[in-house]
Structures are given as C-alpha cells and as structure tokens.
Amino acid sequence: MAGMSKRQIDLASKTSVPEDQGDLSAQKAPRKEAADGGCGITAGELQAMMAQQTAQLMHAQESALSKAVTRFEGIVEERIGRTDCKVAEMEKKMGELEQKVLHLLEGGPVQQDNRGGTDDQARRARTLIFGGWNRDTRRAELLAELKSALESLGVQNMMDTAPFTTGVRRSMALASFAERRGESYATMRGRMQQVVRAFAESEVMGKQGKNLWCNWSKSKLERLHSSHASWVKRSVAEVNPDKLADLEVEWNQGNVWTAVHLAASSALPPPPGGDPAEILVRDDYETKAWDMAKKCTKPRPGTGYRDPEEVKSAFKQAKLMKTRETWKRALALRKQARKVWEADRLKRASEGDWQALKSCRPKRHAGWDDAFASAQQGDPHRAVHEHLAGVYQGNQPVSQDYRYTGEVRAFTLEEMRDALSMLKSQKAVGSDLTSRELLVGVMGVPGGEEHMLEWFNRTLVSQAVDLNKACDCIDRSVLLARLSDRLGPCAELGCWAALMTDITGTLQTPWGLSQLQMPSGIKQGATESPSMFSFIAEIALEETRIANSWGSREKLFEGMEDEECLYMDDGCLWNKGVQGMERKLAEYAKQLRMYGLTINISKCQMYCGPRCKGARSICVEGQSSQCSSHLEVMGLQFHVGVTAMEMVTALATKARGRFWEIQHVLRSKGGLSRRISTMQRTAGQAAMWCLGALAPDSGAMGYLNSVQLQLIVWMMRISRGPGEDWGSFRRRAWRVARAALFRSREERWSTLWLRNYWRYSGHRARGVHRDHPALSSVFDSFRTKKWWDHEKANPWGIKHVHHYARLMMTEAKMNDAVEGEWRRVAQDRVAWRNAEQRWITREDLPWASGRQPTIENGN
C-alpha cells in the first residue's frame, strides 16, 4: 500500500473559462422544457412584469415622500403660526407701551403718589368716603340720597364707579377711582379733590337733618388722630358751643389749638410748664407704638424647667392625701415632664440656641472645694483669707491728694464717636446684651447722638462707682502718679483716686463669708482692670527700654527694631543670645518692682533656636528657667521649622475634644443641617480660631476637611454594615457626610481657612499705614517677597540658611489672585473683597478626588 501512487483529481479542469467579455456573466441554469408541452416566459412578458413592478415602487416612493413633505409642512406651519402669535403679542405689547408713554407725555411729569408699597395703601389712595347718615341706615336709601347729592353738586361725571357700602345697613359709603384713558395718576387725584371740595364748600342737607360730607380714605393711625381731635371738638361743643369759633384743628395729627395755647394733641408731647395732674390722658385704646413697647421691652421669660399644671395638681393632691401612691405618681409625672423639657432644650441647643447650649455643657472644675478642704489643717476659709491678706498688704494712697475742685469737662461728640469706633462688631455684652450695632443705630436717627451724649454725661456726674471688687497686687500710689503725669489735674483723676482708696473686699467661699481690707491692687473683673493692667505693663516696659538703651543693642534680625510685644500683662521678649535675654529680663523685673509687681519665672517659658550658642538657661532674681524644646502659646507649640501640619494637628485635637464635650447635643435627634451649623460654630471655631494668621497649606487643608467630615460621620451615627469591609465603609461614610455638608450650605474648613487668611492679610496690610501700626502689621511688612527677590539678585545680599519659599510662594499666589501687588490692592477694601472669591477658587481643594463613578459621569 505504501508503494501505490495517490489518485489525482483536477477540479479546475472542469471549470469553463470564458473566451470573450460576453461570457463573463454568470452561468444561467439550463431551461427545462415544459412537461406537458407549455411554453416559457417571453421577453415581452418579462418587460411588462418589470414595468409593473417599477410602477408600484415609484407609486410607493411618491406616496411616502408626499406624506413626509406633508408632515414637514405641518410642522413648519405650526411653528410659523406660533411665531406669528408671539410677534403679534409683542406688537400688541409694544403698542400698549407706546400708548402708555403717550399718556404720560400728555399728562406731564409723574407726581409722587401715596400708593406706598402695599395693596392696602394703594387702595386707600384711590378711595373716597361719604358720610353724614345715622347708624344702620338702609343701603338703598343711603345710595339713592348720595346719588342725588352728587348730581346736585355737578360732580357725578367725575365718578368712575358707583358708590357702595360694605353692608346692608351702614352710615358711610365708599367710592373707588381709577385712571381714565389718557389720564395720569395726578389728574385722577385732582378729580377726587374736586369731589371733596364740592362737599366741603357746600352744605348738603340730608333727609335725616345732617350735613353730608366727603373725605379721603385714611389709615388706622390717621383715623385715630382724627378721632382724637373730633372727640375734643365735640367735648368743647357740649360744654360751651361759643368756644368752637376759637378752636383750630389739625386733623391729620390730632392737634387742637385755642387762640393762644395747644389744647390737645395725639402726636405732640405736653407743652413744658404744665401741671401733669391737670392733663387729661386718653388711654382707652393702645397705639401700635405702645403695643410694640410692651412686647419688646418686657423681660424675656426664662427657659428653665417649670412644673406644668398637671404636675402641680399632682403634688397638691399628694400633699393633701399623704399616701405612697399619690407621691409616687407626682414624682413620676415630674420626671416625665422634665425629660420632655430636657429633650426640648437639647433640640434648641442643636439648632443654635446658645443659652440652651451653654446650659447643656458639663460643668468644669466641680469638686475642687472638697479636695481643697481635705488638704487643709484648719478652717479652709481662714486659709484663703490669710493668703489674700498677705497678697494685698501695702500702703494705700490718699484720695485727698488728687481731689479736684474745678469744673468737670463733659464728654464731646468726637470722644464718643472715637470710643464707638473702638468697639467690636457682632458682640452683645453686659446684662442687657448691648451691641455696637445698637449704639450705631441709635446715633443714626435724628437727634440720637445728642441724646446718647447727654446720657453719658448724666452718668458721668450722677452715678456712683462700685468699689466692692477684688484687687490684684499693685502699688496704687505709683499707678496714680503715672496717671497724674498723663491726665494732669482733672475730675477723672479724682475719680480714679476714689476707686483706689478705702477698698474693702467681700470674700465669699463655700465655707464662709468675711471682709478683707485691700490697700493695694487693681480690681479684678471690673471694666477698668484690663486697661489698667495694660497701662502699667506698657509704661514699665517703655521706661525699661529707654532707661537701658535697648534700641542701641544688637538685633536678632537686621532691620527689625521691635523685639518685645505685650498683650495686657502678658509679654514676649526676644534677643540675640541667652545672656542678652537674661540681662533684658533682669532690667524689666527691676522696673516692675517699682509698681509692686514681680516676674514669676516658674510661669515663664524660654525657647532657644537650634543655632543658639552658649548656655540654655537663665537666672533672674534667684529663680532659674531652663530652655524648652518649643514655645507654647494657647495650646500651640512654636519652634523653628514647625510645619503647618503640626499646628493644625493640635487644633484638630481641640476640635475633637469640643465635639465630644457636647456630643449629646450634636448627636441628638434633630435637623442635621442645623446641627452641622452648630458644630461649625463650636467644634469648628476651636479648630479655626487662629488659622487666619497661618499661611494655608494644601496638605493641612485636606487634613482639616477630613476631620470635619469625620465629625459629621459621628453626628450621623453611621456604622459599618454586616460584611462590609473598612475601605467600603469609609468611602460610603465620607460620601454621605460630604453630601450632608453640601446640603447644609456650610463651608468646608479649608474654605474658611483661605477666607480668614485673606481678610486678615488685608487687615495687616492696611494697618502698616496707621500712626501706630500693630505688631502683626510690622511683622507682615518685614522681609516681604519683593525684598527677598531684591536680595537674591544682589550678590552681597542677605543669604538664608535654609529655603525661604513657603511665605514667598503664598505671596506670589496672592499677587496672581489680584493680578498685581497684593499689598497695594489691599488698601482698597472693595477691590480686596471682590478678589476674595477668586483667591478661594484658585487655592481651595476640590470637593472630591474625581474617582467616584457618578462624578466621572457628570451626575
């Protein structure tokens, strides 16, 4: 088998090859002869069939095309019709507008009308009132008699509508007016005036024997004024009709004059010199002003817990029955009512009621008195008394040495305006919650400044000064001497001397009450305490700086003349080298001893930079202080090279602590948007209180936004579902919190950071041009980006040890936001505020990473 040759089959040999172009067409199947001798299809029949088919196709195509054209024509006609209607409507409106313009031109300039801003005022301005009939007169008789009177006076053609009454039996009728074609509002009021004048100039006697009258429609207050004058006039007519000729009446204000004096008024105060006992006051009605005064000036009711009537009745029954069941029922009702009250207080606190929020906060430093008492050997009150007596011992000044016998100089308007400009806005202080906005509003009304100045001056000369306050240790004689140098002999100096002599304090503790003589010190908690502390600290520091020539010593930073700052009695000093700082602190402590003050070194902090050479400790007046690794100010740690993330981490910790402090409020059952707003103003403020002074950093902003979303997740009580991994849970929770924050219309913390920094930067830039710029403005203008660019280009310029880029990059971004030098633009408050949103848009972080599918799809 292996040697046999294979069979070869050539399939191509059986395929016919065409010899010419005519044979290139497809091979047709051979015709079959008819079995029964029938003939095939001829060419004519084939042509007829094809012609018929062609005709059918053309007919179908024409029919479809005709239908499409018809449909298209219908759509076009419909749209053109709608367009024609719109054009016709616009032409109609234009025609009406042209007619109105022509009417205005024909009627002259438009007069100021009395239509006001409400429908009621506009309706009264177009209404006349007719009267003079007895009460409960039939409508038909009243209207018929009025129609006859109008025709007799010849003013019937001036009426636009027929008079009407508001009931079947009335004593007055009303008539409405409207502008006629081609008539202005002033012309219509002229027609109404002609009708009123026709009745006033004629005596139209009605069938009931009374004169008919016509007048304008008035408001309720105007009617009260008119009724008051009418009441006085009727009273005079009943007492002595002959005196009516001597009366002059001003109906709009309710004023009635005799020939010489003002007899009555509902708008003016009684004339001076009159006896109040002889003035008759009409108090049978209350005006809107008195009603508003009652509602707005009465003390606000407290929101503390009070037993409802059901609980009070239960306790009355329990006291009467004196059984176990009645007392248990009364106590259960009180417990239930208090739970309802606490739930309502919690809801109000979560919605931003700060009084309720304050009452919901846990009490701090509770129980300190028990620990203090257990640590004492004897009476704890006696221990406190003896300690304070040692603190306040000294020689008190003699007030007679500063007694002033001359004229007292009253406050002036300029002094009051300057004092008002120094108050902070959006702050309500004092027991009566007085704000700067309230005082500005009072001064803005006519005569407000004069009345407020008079009030202050009366207080200056008539009110006693409270002396029962505790005092801090200070030599008052030296303080009064410094005040005398600044104020000179005046009544104010005598007032200060009275404040600082013969002071007896009341010491009240949980263990008793005693009186304490305080010959030295400044009152704690009083209004003048901060200003006095600041005054003494500033005077002592300035005297020390001048006496020891601090300005001529070597500076830590070349070009920075200021090396000390104060806030009240707290200060911050810096110097080049530890020895220079020790010397400066010793000189300052020596000067403070002249005022009876000392420096407590144990409460001071000393920080040395990493390149500071020499010893790392100082000794002042026998007390030593070691160098710290950082400088802590209000919970924030400062050191050379500190990053924005380190600062923000401490602030975020404070925000979390504030959140869990009031978590029962923020996580309560209530409106989520309102609770987020409350969280922003509590925990958010704990994180944002100082960020306006720190340059924004993208990483720190993202971290703050994450903390904000985490707090919202805790508020919403979102928990991980069964079988849900932590990555999916975090992604779901973060997206839900982000949506809740967006719906609440509250800003993200990164946005608030950028906004606060922008506004505070403008404030610092504008403060440089003041007569006495703040230290923040001095720091901000020291070694700016413009200076640094100049130093980099200068071969002999100042070189920085490390990179000096962060603040320079921030300034470059601010320059891009304002398209120029940002410090120059900041001088214009309007331009600076307009550029704020552009700065936020450029520097703020996106709401999401963009990896969420719905965000990618644009949903």
Protein described:
The protein is built from 31 helices and 22 strands. It has 859 residues and is of the alpha+beta class. It has six domains: 65-107; 119-268, Alpha-Beta Plaits (2-Layer Sandwich), CATH 3.30.70.330; 309-360; 380-423 and 449-524, no CATH class; 530-629, no CATH class; 644-843, no CATH class. The strands form nine sheets. The protein has a four-stranded antiparallel β-sheet. A three-stranded antiparallel β-sheet has the order 7-8-9, covered by helices on one side. Strand 21 and strand 22 (636-638) form a beta hairpin. Helix 15 (476-487) runs antiparallel to helix 16 (491-499), helix 21 runs antiparallel to helix 22 and helix 22 crosses helix 23. Residues 1-15, 21-26, 32-38, 107-117, 464-471 and 854-859 have low confidence and may be disordered.
